[in-house]
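Much of what follows relies on a compact textual record of a protein's fold. Each token is a code from a learned vocabulary of local backbone shapes. The record below shows the convention in full.
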Amino acid sequence: MPTIITSRLSELLRATSPRQVRLVCGIILFCYVVSHFLNHALGNISVDAMEVGVTYHVRFWQFLPVAIVFYTAALTHMGLGVYALYQRRQFRWRTIEPLQLVLGLSIPALVMAHVIGVRLGQTLYGHEKLYPQELYLFFVAAPGRLWLMTTLLLIAWVHGCIGIYFWLRLKPFYLRAAPYLLAAAVLIPTLALLGIYQGGRSVVAAVDDGEWRTHHLTRGQLGTAAEAETLDRITGGLTVGYLGLLALALAARGVRALRERRRGMIMLSYGNGKTVRVPKGLSVLEASLRHNLPHASVCGGRARCSTCRIRIIGDHAALPTPSQREAFVLARVGTADPSIRLACQLRPDSDLSFFQLFTPHALSANTHAAAPARIGQERYLVSLFVDMRGSTQLAEKRLPFDTVFIVNRFLGAVSQAVIENGGQPNQFVGDGMLALFGLTADPQTACRQALKAASGIAANIDELNQLLGHDLRQPIRFGIGIHGGEVIIGDIGYRDHVVFTALGDAVNVAARLQDMTKTLACEAIVSEDVRRTAGLADDSLPQQQVAIRGRGEPMAVRVVADTRVLSRLVDRGASVAA
């Protein structure tokens, strides 16, 4: 039993990164902020309600075990934030990322005076500064502090919400929960600030009451001027110390850059003829970003996926030992080859040659070739449904990011073939796609384009299987259904969620034919109407009668065991017709 526990703890530590520790600490702090904001919101009822609420708030957060966890999380989160400033080498971020860092690093400096005045004042001098006393200071004695506190509240809230967004955005329930989370993100701080304002108004109205002042503004509650001066000196000293810590982190970055220059430069060869010269200490992924070289990395270099993997060319014995996080990720994807490393984690100190296992891929934009009528319009279109086989089994053995990466590469290969042959990728449903042909072409051309696209899909998937062969237990397979007919095209949806698509029996039949490829053990099924309209010879493909769900009579279709032959059949039919 002890061995099992030790093994599991070791695995947990290997799976844990500083980012994950920072996330857990941030969630604890965000829970405190939410509790504090809800307490402020009670000011919309009365100051007395705020006092009752803060009693339970303090009772929970100052309960010794909770207090230990809270202050440990606060110090750890702040320390890891400063460490992130030092560690980060590339600042080509999206706007929201530097915003989160700047806001997070500014919070300790802004919150220092409040923490020292309330918590340390209570510890050193026994001050009991609750809502009446704080509101008196904000609205009467020192109004300038009100704006500082308001700024602090908004910065802490925005910083926390950005962190929650980065955490939840990849969760399967996020899209459903997003509207409710947005409502809470707006409503909670609004009610909190209104509560502070209403509570402040009540205090301002009561401050001339001698009995109220005698009860709430005693020396034991507010302290003396000398005590306040002492607390201000402590606040100033700690603030200067924190700013010095930030300056030290920035200075350490400069020292590191100088040391790297003195240690020398190394050459990274990408295996495709590209070579870059970088300082020692950069990760391979950082080197790619610095020199604007495409490098797959779905998780953004956080070691949460393995799409940045590289294979070392030549001797790999002198490379740095994989970190615990890198070793954990490589073990998760079943990679035992020591020549395979994560580019985001490997920091070589000598010349290195390698090639990327996952080539970055940019998907063409889904645009209309010639904008058809956006309101309902009836016309003949050819629908091509394609679906990836075995994606469920693929996901069971992989990290989520890796699965999404492979599915996207599959859909990219399919879309490329569709676009190159005059079609339009229209709807993406999981690992499947609907493509439309005939938006700007006559029926015969549309049918030929769809058949040639199916052949192109097979060719592209063959290339993809070769590229990913080292990482796939089985080649990627697919099923295609093609059918043409009159459909309704136009914008479908509601408000901001409107898409251009096609509706009609022909689209449904294409989807049924695609699904039928599983039972008939073939790559594609083409309706007889499409075969005849495209001009293919009657004996070019085997014919079969199939039952289509929703139709009373069987339907004649052509079974295609190998879709690669379709391009040749289309060209032969076109030459005969000419």
